Amino acid sequence: MNxxxxxxxxxxxxxxxxxxxxxxxVDTSHHRMEGQSIKCGxxxxxxxxxxCSNGPCRITPDGPKGVCGATADTIVARNFLRAVSAGSxxxxxxxxxxxxxxKKTAANKGAIKGKIALAKLAEIFEVNETDEHVxxxxxxxxxxxxxxxxxxxxxxxxxxxAYKPRFDRWKELGILPGGAKSExxxxxxxxxTNLNSxxxxxxxxxxxxxxxxxxxxxxxxxxxxxxMLGEPSIRLAPVGxxxxxxxxxxxxxxxxxxSMFAYLQERLIQEDVIEKAKAVGAKGFKLVGCTCVGxxxxxxxxxxxxxxxxxxxxxxxxxxxLATGAIDAVLSEFNCTLPGIEPICDELKIKQICLDxxxxxxxxxxxxxxxxxxxxxxxxxxxxxxxxxxxxRGVVALNLDAEHGNDDTLTGVSEGSxxxxxxxxxxxxxxxxxxxxxxxxxxVVGCSSLTAGGHDVLTVNLVKELxxxxxxxxxxxxxxxxxxxxxxxxxxxASLAGPKLRAVCESLGIPPVLNFGPCxxxxxxxxxxTELAEAIGVDLPQLPLVLSAPQWLEEQAxxxxxxGLALGLPLHLGLPPFxxxxxxxxxxFTQDMLNLTGGQLxxxxxxxxxxxxxxxxxxxxxxxxxx
Amino acid sequence: xKRIIIDREKCDGCLNCNIACISAHEEGSNFYTxxxxxxxxxxxxxxxxxxxxxxxxxxxxHCDEPECVLSCMxxxxxKDPVSGHVQYDENKxxxxxxxxxxxxxxxLKPDKKNRTKVIKCDFCDDKPDGxxxxxxxxxxxxxxxxxxx
Amino acid sequence: xxxxxxxxxxAGISAAKTIKVSEPETEVVIISKEDxxxxxxxLHKFLGHQRDAKGISFIADDFFETAxxxxxxxxxxxxxxxxxxxxxxxxxxxxxxxxxxxxTGAAYFIPPIPGLRESKNVxxxxxxxxxxxxxxxxxxxxxxxVIGAGLVGMDAAVALLERGLNVTVIEMTxxxxxxxxxxxxxxxxxxxFEEAGAEFILEDKVVSVDVNDVxxxxxxxxxxxxxxxxxxxVIAAGVRPAFNxxxxxxxxxxxxxxxxxxxxTNLKDIYAAGDVTGIAGIWPNAMKxxxxxxxxxxxxxxxxxxxxxxxNTVNFYGLTTLSLGNINPEPEENCEILIREDRHNYQxxxxxxxxxxxxxxxxxxxxxxxxxxLIKNKIDISGKNKDVFSLSFADFYDLDQQTGEYKYAV
Lengths: 627, 149, 410
Ligand SMILES: Cc1cc2nc3c(=O)[nH]c(=O)nc-3n(C[C@H](O)[C@H](O)[C@H](O)COP(=O)(O)OP(=O)(O)OC[C@H]3O[C@@H](n4cnc5c(N)ncnc54)[C@H](O)[C@@H]3O)c2cc1C
Ligand code: SF4
Ligand code: SF4
Ligand code: SF4
Ligand code: SF4
Prior knowledge:
The complex is a heterotrimer.
Chain A: H1 15-22, H2 29-35, H3 41-45, E1 48-49, E2 57-58, H4 72-107, H5 115-125, H6 132-147, H7 157-161, H8 164-173, H9 180-190, H10 199-229, E3 235-239, E4 249-254, H11 262-267, H12 271-279, E5 285-290, H13 291-299, E6 308-313, H14 318-323, E7 329-332, H15 341-347, E8 351-354, E9 365-366, H16 374-392, E10 406-411, H17 415-421, H18 427-435, E11 440-445, H19 457-468, E12 471-476, H20 478-485, H21 499-508, E13 513-515, H22 522-536, E14 545-549, H23 555-566, E15 570-573, H24 583-596, E16 600-603, H25 607-624
Parallel strand pairs in A: 4-5, 4-7, 5-6, 7-8, 8-9, 11-12, 11-14, 12-13, 14-15, 15-16
Antiparallel strand pairs in A: 1-2, 3-10
Chain B: E1 2-6, H1 16-24, E2 46-50, E3 54-58, H2 67-71, E4 77-79, E5 86-88, H3 98-102, E6 109-110, E7 118-119, H4 132-136, E8 142-146
Chain C: E1 2-6, H1 10-22, E2 27-31, H2 43-47, H3 63-67, E3 70-72, E4 77-81, E5 86-89, E6 94-96, E7 99-102, E8 106-108, E9 122-123, H4 128-138, E10 143-147, H5 151-162, E11 166-170, H6 183-195, E12 199-201, E13 206-211, E14 217-222, E15 227-229, E16 232-235, E17 239-241, E18 270-272, H7 283-297, E19 311-316, E20 319-325, E21 336-341, E22 346-352, E23 355-362, H8 370-376, E24 397-399, E25 406-408
Parallel strand pairs in C: 1-2, 1-7, 2-3, 7-18, 9-16, 10-11, 10-16, 11-12
Antiparallel strand pairs in C: 4-5, 5-6, 8-17, 13-14, 14-15, 19-20, 20-23, 21-22, 22-23, 24-25
Helix pairs in contact in C: 1-7
One iron/sulfur cluster binds near residues 60, 61, 103, 107 and 108 of chain B.
């Protein structure tokens, strides 16, 4: 809204970061926020339409309809479905690349590091192959076959993956998705000029996209990556700007497609490459985690101790990480690779390489990842990073903050690692919930944005409120980047939890906020929720479980949100997703959804009242379960 | 007196000033929630477009010698001797619309819903943080300045 | 200095205000024959019981005290002695002045029709007293007749309808409000009034009124032979400037008191403003004249240039109309007449050689204030190359960089 920030940079939940950024001489998102603090009211309400040359049409008191006759309800729904389609497209792109890579890896008898994940997928998909490569390839083929189906042929793995009561409800509602790529296409077509004008039809379509996004883009991407890269395992790890070690040649990675780095990250720690680094005065190479792919590495960090130094920060920390001057190159393959890093890279002579043209940065070198050429490509990348290192180190001033972050963030939490931590069964967790030692679970997911009070502000405040109410928080996405840097994922954060949750955490030596890593891991939260529901024998909407994306940022987050609603979960957002200009939208999302899927949207930018609402929903669900 | 000074070259026609004005007069609303489709939604400022000149913001000048006040037969319009702003009292107004006829700049209009009152800029009641429209203008095409009467 | 103002209405009050704002030490005495200050334009709200007497005042309760003005109410001036510089009142007070403003407005006029002037139940609709008398009649009357369908007659009719009376309006011309409207615009109002229960007899004339034995008019006879029963009669057939008391003072008059552009009369230190000058019969002009006269009385020079009087707005039953200038030109005037109509609007622009002579804007009148400027100043719009109905102030947009005020770019 029209909040005017008093200082030049916007606030951060992470005060050290706020100070660090406000003292920078380069321009960051945090600086630009002030210049963009005045927002367009039509945009905020979603009632601007640019679909045709009669536009842009805006809904005003004197112009209650677009030229074509589109009402606010139609315009909002079209804009929303477009956004969800785009968001879905992003995640489907990721799972498609991941499946293709798994297929090629398997065909070339590459390493299969995640045997448990492979077995699990084989079981779900009913693939009976003893040879793990053949098995992996078949799994990849099944996923790809579904992704490439037309929209009028339903995807086959949905029924295998989805929890039965959910699947049945989706079938009843007619929202089982066809081929995931085609569904994106259908969503885009539907929302074009003078096509669909039925808001309810379009919102149901969003749910359909939510299902394909969630099950494929999220859940499967995790599992396929686990097969290639190894499963997460719980450990303590350093986070924040402190992870940057100037003795090494540092490569910051941004994106969401961890498997694209699989070969490179192995290569960076091989003797001959280390020798090359030494020849120019460095001890070797380090990957510095940033955005979700950094979280992914951190999650599986157990397998990459030598090359991965830790996760430095989330989306809106990336510019600050570069501004330390200690990063020599940025390798990116997807979002969230901010255009704002470009001038910083230019100024600080940081080499930029893009591995996937969807995230091509204007001033970056384009090196599309080709599986068959991964050896030579990696060597080329290493050579140019070394070149950059030589050209800049000693020339570019360093501006480090060794105090930022912490060394004891608990990471590596996944549906698998958490279950084995609990002794291979969910029973201990269920018992704690039944006894009320843990009142409920909140999945706090999504991004960070600079609105809603500033960088990570609402996320951190909300999480503090929730844990104080004995609600266990599971986090996935850039939200976890913020939460870990402020120490909420360190075991001593237990002291901030309510007495019951605190006791549980202290006895287990865990923090009250569990780090599932990247936004893709929202799929893992779904797996946890489903397994819990199955163990108790209820449907998802009955669980004392809520979702919140307090600082949702982009279209992908909206597709994730649609998944959450399709799962029938209450979903809190800090700021409305550009829909409040339509009374139908507000009605569908905040009321009617309860009857459709059991889900419900809650919009509240106040941490206290939002936590209260979520708490009372959890209480209500507990009552209904008689616990 | 404080006046909203217009730099028409800067105006982009975004209409944020309209929304801000409507919101300022819908109790408790903000940019997300203001109901632009309500029959009560009325903007007190206007943006016109001219092919040659571009966007032309039309905002009440709270004139030094306000024609609207001179034409008002109910005492509803008065120039506040302290703030200099021309204030309107809906309860006194007889909805005769002599003021609409007399504002030389076409700033005034009858209310859309019932034609029982006048829609007029109230300088956002002279609230301390200034006019809502000015705060909402991304281009600083409208700014508040002190002018001598 | 002592300034005496006769009349406590638009012109008188606006003059007094202007004087007190610029020279608070000047002594100001206002004399009025009424006991309250009220806006005649709201009399129908009083008669219609939408507002009480206080509700139709246009000044603050404590206006006179705060401004330090002496107000002699219920006091009628009966003569003027320009040599001694005094006025005399009905109760024999002699009040001296250094400067005098005559702002006595106008008074309604009862045409010399047999039976009409004699009837006790005939009322004008000019001031609060008239409205109070009518109010009393309304408590028993069933049938009301309004003679004259001009703005005042229509105001009276709307109030009487509000009070549930059967209302018949008799008008000589072929349309209601024929000075302000053309046939089509007038029909729209007539229809609304008819829907509210009024009956109109147009193009007809009152020829006589039957008076009963208690002196009340009972039946109105028309030229057409029609007879209309009446319990109460409102006469709205025009007003005359009110300056009887100036007889013998040597003041120059025709049908009104004659003034120059400085609003001074031919007599030393005597000014006139408002309806009494005959320049215009509407509120804004009376206010402005009061202001201009005051400034001149204080010794500054300011000319009254706004002699343009053909302007009005109408708002009945939520239908609003703006009417300016020559809206019903004769064929021999060779004017160009442009009409635009839609479901909610009827608009008419009368043009001659690129100059706007008159407009009617019925329906949406928001933002139409600029038309008056164009007509008054005879602005040539032929160069605008634009549909006249889409004109707005934006087409003449200019700003004073220093003050931020608007200017007309013409
Ligand atoms: C029913 C009605 C509706 C109207 N509606 C509108 C409208 O909608 N818009 C519009 O612009 N105009 C309207 N008018 C016209 C408008 O009211 C007049 O133009 C305006 O009132 C003129 O103001 P004035 O000060 O010149 O005189 P007036 O208002 O006539 O006031 C004259 C004053 O002089 C006093 N006075 C007169 N003679 C003496 C005396 N001998 N001694 C002492 N005091 C004296 C009176 O008491 C009074 O205070 C309406 C008029 C009427 C009657
Ligand atoms: S100052 Fe307030 S009332 Fe006036 S135009 Fe601006 S927002 Fe509207
Ligand atoms: S409404 Fe018109 S005349 Fe009145 S103060 Fe505003 S700009 Fe001036
Ligand atoms: S419409 Fe109201 S504010 Fe305007 S002149 Fe008439 S009484 Fe005064
Ligand atoms: S907010 Fe500013 S830029 Fe936008 S239309 Fe209004 S004046 Fe113009």
